[in-house]
Design goal:
The complex is a heterodimer of chains A (818) and B (228). Chain A contains 24 helices and 25 strands. Chain A has 818 residues and is an alpha+beta fold. With 228 residues, chain B is of the alpha/beta class. In chain B, 34% of the residues lie in helices and 29% in strands. Chain B is built from seven helices and ten strands. In chain B, α6 links the parallel β7 and β8. The longest helix of chain B is centred in the last third of the chain and has 16 residues. Chain B is globular, with a radius of gyration of 17 Å. Chain B starts with a strand and ends with a strand. The chains are: A alpha+beta (818), B alpha/beta (228).
Chain lengths: 818, 228
């Protein structure tokens, strides 16, 4: 019997090839996307879960409260790791990871070979007691226990020594400065990529005695704790305030030159808490994360989108099947007449939808092979075709096949099998009215989703444009950032002068940070004139050309200048800093900071004078409100300013860049000239949004495409059903336009209804999304209109393809078909 | 001779929102086993409604219908389907072959539904295809055949199960006269071999092949002529 069903199903497919292609390709595309998303979700939610004993590992992090705001950090003062282990019996082991080396990048020499190694961190000897890993060579006890010991992962060891087993005992010579050669003490198996951080090389933290100094206020160490089996996160967290009281108070009072009571009553404070290791990747978005972490709500959205896309593809199948029901009606009649029961017919039609579903899955695997590169490009993830080969993925595929087979087949099966043979065999049969209502409903559903996605895409796009092009308060175009200029040391000024000689270069400035970067330091300042609480904000060290180079606006006073030799003891502030300090007429007012490097070496405090106020500008992303910013003059800090900004105007950008490189090589022979563009640096802050933008665009394209495939099929069948009517109308004088209008009208009505449904949903969702931004676009209504027009246009083009074909056909032909 | 069909005061109504049409109006007659009965009458006289009820495709609104000594007027769809597939074969004006199945498979269909084993099916299908002289066409699809050939396939399908009764609804309506005659000859042969045939027709010529003609008008029997 099944054989007979399959035979009929197969022949049906062959007979209506275009219908089969529409059905199968729509389903396949939907399934491939859905599969991709499910694998993506799985990979995202499995980060760090490969670590079998990871359930007891936590990261200690903090919320730093400032008056009226807070910042959360992934790293904490370096002394806590030791203290919590000693004080809290629940803490079995603690370890610290320091990410000091220019984002983990490190030059290393082995013999004559030079390597630029990434993901190099300092780590405590206890590292592998917290992060249990597979030791390949060497000994775990000695791994990081000596000051100049280093640990490599297998890949790095192979890269350096050809054979990982040869690595232990070998010397690594770090480039330059005063770091001693290090001895490889152990080689560990590579950690899987899905870890919230990963290392190529670890250097014992004992190498730097500074790491052992007592410090409870400066944030520097990623601190991980292994708790014993009976400990609870809550219990351990509840002990933290006590530990602050006992150990950190003195440090805090010294640093901020105020009593802890006054400090905290002004709204300052430290709230330490734990993050379970396995939750870090999806839930933690603090300052100083090792990498850009994932996002739970993104996964929910993706999951929803996956479901909708598959459902929309199934809807196509349902719609086309019921629309075609009149063609199958006679077969049903004949089968029933010759003794088939309804149950048998339902089985037959479900078998058919399963066959289509199976074929679709096969095609889906083909599509899937094409998708990962596109999707990875869009989302920045590393999915591969080989991910499909896991048992889970194959089970998933089978599940999809079954779900699709049943979901798509069940309704048409019941409709088709319930036809009465006498009616259909007499040819009285008309495609059911209840079927039409359902089809309309499903089309509305498909296009509602499509319109929602179009709206989201448009709004995300506009917000992105706003963020990168709006008045940020500085000029970001045509500006090159030259990196690692700290290497120039005394030659900085000479290098800058050389740069100015380049055609088109007018402004050159050294600085410790530029807009869009994370490296503004935290600092507090107190006014001598008024006795208000100290103001905590960000700090930056710049030279006298910074304001000009970035085109910042001066509100009052002046910026640093060569003409004033006393400028080393002056500061310039943004408006926000002046407001938070609570001072009137800021020019000439005096301020002090407890920050060591801005005071005398013997610890006595310098007094700084405010000489200028610049207009607030967005030196951080538009997610954040503008916070206080204090500029300090560069003259004594040449070596801390790792960056030089060069503004190019009125000349070829590329030739200017080439010239810069030549100048660089003149001073620095053995280090590559590395640079970035200011506008790209600014844009990089919105990487997450830029990904959302691409992902939304991708999904809305796919959704619309699948919905249109369905619409195309549906339009073809309704047109065919009305071919007689079209013939009669044409004979009576209807124009092509009349016919196209008549055929399109019904569908256009449905699209309009979809828009009405989609608008409030999209409005609600996007309003929520926009709340993420302190600075956001305000007017979005025109985008709803635009989305509606786009949907209508796409739908109209899809339908009119069929409608025009029908309308220009010879009426005699269509009348004869009846 | 045994009575295979006996209907008494059979009624059937069709209702739309405003109008109630009487399709069968207290119709009564009997058909004996081995008879060949033609039912004639103008369009809308209730012939097809009658045939549907006799074929257990539809149920009457009133009256009695005894098929093979069983009262079937109150049968539900499942029971009717069961009785139908074992006892009744159908031949339609528009052939109603399934386009996606070959000649062989079309004929095989009723045997599948009555649960005949594959070996037996093959034997019986080939037998009947030989008899209808379309064995050479068994792998063709209906669209590849002429109308006459298609109707021969339809007849083959109707008889493959050895039904007691064949219901033919204008079997020659879509055929030219020579193909029509061929089909009528086939039906006559079947009848002579013992199968009861009830045929609805507009054609006086076809009706002459039968033993008895029942003429209908407005859902009622008007005359009955015995030809033999």
């Amino acid at each position: 019997m099944i054989k007979n069903y399959l035979k009929i199903a197969w022949r049906n497919l062959l007979k209506r090839k275009s219908y089969a292609i529409i059905n199968i390709s729509g389903l396949a595309l939907g399934a491939a996307i859905c599969l991709l998303i499910v694998l993506f979700i799985k990979s995202e939610s499995s980060v760090d879960s490969w670590r079998e004993d990871g359930d007891h590992v936590y990261r200690m992090v903090l919320d730093r409260m400032y008056p009226g705001r807070k910042t959360s950090y992934a790293f904490i003062p370096q002394s806590f790791a030791k203290t919590v282990k000693e004080e809290l019996p629940e803490v079995e082991e603690s370890t610290r990871v320091f990410n000091f080396l220019n984002n983990g990048t490190f030059q290393i020499n082995i013999g004559d070979n030079k390597y630029e190694e990434t993901k190099v961190f300092f780590a405590d000897p206890s590292f592998f007691s917290v992060f249990k890993s597979n030791l390949l060579y060497g000994s775990e006890e000695e791994a990081l226990s000596k000051p100049n010991s280093a640990v490599l992962n297998e890949t790095t060891a192979k890269k350096y020594f050809g054979d990982a087993s040869q690595a232990v005992g070998k010397l690594l010579k770090p480039e330059g400065n005063n770091i001693e050669p290090m001895e490889v003490s152990a080689v560990y198996e590579d950690w899987p990529e899905n870890s919230h951080f990963n290392f190529n090389m670890l250097i014992s933290s004992l190498a730097n005695p500074g790491f052992e100094e007592e410090n409870y206020v400066g944030f520097s160490a990623h601190t991980y704790l292994r708790l014993n089996e009976n400990a609870t996160q809550e219990k351990v967290e509840s002990s933290f305030p006590g530990i602050i009281q006992k150990f950190a108070l003195g440090d805090i009072e010294r640093q901020f030159a105020t009593s802890y009571e006054k400090f905290s009553s002004a709204g300052n404070g430290y709230k330490y808490y734990l993050q379970p290791l396995k939750d870090i990747y999806l839930t933690s978005h603090l300052e100083g994360e090792f990498r850009v972490n994932g996002n739970k709500s993104t996964l929910y959205i993706f999951g929803l989108v996956a479901f909708f896309i598959l459902f929309i593809a199934c809807v196509n199948f349902i719609n086309l099947s019921t629309a075609r029901s009149s063609e199958r009606a006679r077969e049903v009649g004949v089968r029933k007449t010759f003794g088939s029961e309804k149950k048998a017919l339902i089985t037959q039609f479900i078998t058919e939808s399963f066959l289509i579903s199976i074929l679709a899955m096969i095609v889906a695997v083909g599509f899937f092979a094409l998708l990962p590169p596109i999707f990875n490009d869009i989302s920045g993830k590393g999915l591969q075709m080989s991910d499909l080969l896991s048992v889970n993925a194959i089970l998933l595929l089978i599940t999809f096949t079954c779900i699709t087979g049943v979901l798509a087949g069940i309704y048409p099966a019941f409709i088709l099998s319930s036809f009465q043979p006498i009616e259909v065999l007499r040819g009285k049969f008309k495609s059911g009215k209840q079927g039409k209502a359902l089809r309309s409903g499903l089309v509305v559903f498909q296009f509602s989703i499509s319109v929602i996605l179009i709206v989201c895409t448009l709004i995300v796009n506009r917000q992105m444009e706003f963020m990168t092009s709006e008045q940020l308060g500085f000029k970001k175009e045509q500006t090159v950032i030259i990196e690692r200029t700290d290497l120039l040391g005394e030659n900085t000024r000479a290098f800058k002068n050389e740069l100015k000689a380049i055609n088109g270069v007018s402004k050159v400035s050294s600085a410790s940070a530029l807009p869009g970067m994370q490296n503004y330091f935290g600092i507090s300042w107190a006014s001598i004139e008024n006795q208000n609480e100290p103001m905590t904000g960000r700090g930056i060290i710049v030279d006298d050309e910074y304001m000009e180079t970035l085109d910042l606006k001066l509100v009052e006073g002046r910026f640093f200048s060569k003409d004033f030799p006393t400028d080393s003891l002056t500061v310039v502030m943004n408006e926000k800093a002046v407001a938070e300090l609570g001072i009137q007429d800021p020019i000439g007012k005096r301020v002090v900071t407890p920050e060591g490097f801005l005071n005398a070496n013997d610890g006595s405090q310098y007094v700084y004078t405010i000489i200028g106020v610049v207009k607030d500008f967005h030196y951080q992303s538009l997610h954040e409100p503008i916070t206080p910013l204090v500029f300090t003059n560069a003259s004594k800090f040449n070596n801390v300013m790792g960056l030089v900004a060069v503004h190019v105007e009125g000349a070829s950008f590329t030739s200017a860049l080439d010239a810069m490189e030549t100048k660089w090589k003149k001073f620095i022979k053995d280090k590559p000239f590395s640079y970035d563009f200011l506008d790209e640096t600014v844009a990089a802050q919105y990487q997450a949004e830029s990904t959302s933008r691409k992902v939304f665009t991708f999904f809305s394209f796919i959704t619309i495409f699948i919905a249109c495939i369905g619409l195309l099929g549906l339009a073809a069948y309704t047109t065919r059903q009305r071919i007689h009517e079209i013939g009669v109308r044409k004979v009576l004088g209807a124009s092509v336009g009349n016919i196209v209008g008549m055929l399109s009208k019904d569908f256009i009505k449905l699209i309009l209804i979809s828009t009405v449904i989609a608008v409030p949903i999209a409005w609600y969702a996007m309003n929520k999304w926009l709340q993420n931004f302190t600075y956001r676009i305000s007017s979005i209504w025109d985008l709803f209109v635009a989305a509606a027009i786009i949907a209508l246009l796409i739908a109209f083009i899809t339908i009119s393809f069929q409608a025009i074909k029908a309308a220009i056909s010879n009426p005699v032909k269509s009348l004869r078909t009846e | 001779m045994k009575t295979i069909i006996s209907i008494t005061d059979l009624e059937k109504f069709y209702s739309t929102d405003e109008v109630r049409t009487i399709a069968l109006n207290k119709l009564s007659f009997k058909v004996n086993e081995g008879e060949f009965v033609a039912i004639m009458g103008p369009s809308g006289c209730g012939k097809s409604t009658l045939l549907n009820i006799l074929g257990l495709l539809d149920d009457p609104d009133g009256g009695s219908f005894i098929f093979n000594d069983i009262e079937v007027s109150d049968f539900n769809e499942r029971k009717r389907a069961n009785l139908r597939k074992h006892n009744i074969g159908f031949v339609f004006q528009s052939f109603n072959l399934i386009d996606e199945l070959t000649v062989y498979e079309n004929v095989e269909l009723p045997l599948i539904y009555t649960g005949v084993k594959p070996d037996e099916r093959k034997k019986r299908v080939e037998e009947v295809l030989e008899k209808m002289q379309i064995m050479h066409r068994r792998k063709h699809f209906p669209q590849q055949l002429s109308g006459g050939q298609q109707q021969r396939v339809a007849v083959a399908r109707a008889v493959v199960n050895n039904p007691k009764l064949i219901l033919a609804d204008e079997p020659t309506g879509n055929l030219d006269s020579s193909n029509g005659n061929e089909v009528m000859d086939l039906l006559t042969e079947l009848n002579e071999a013992g199968t009861t045939i009830i045929m609805v027709t507009h054609s006086e010529h076809d009706a002459k092949y039968s033993h008895r003609i029942i003429r209908m008008l407005d859902g009622q029997k008007v005359t009955e002529n015995v030809l033999v």
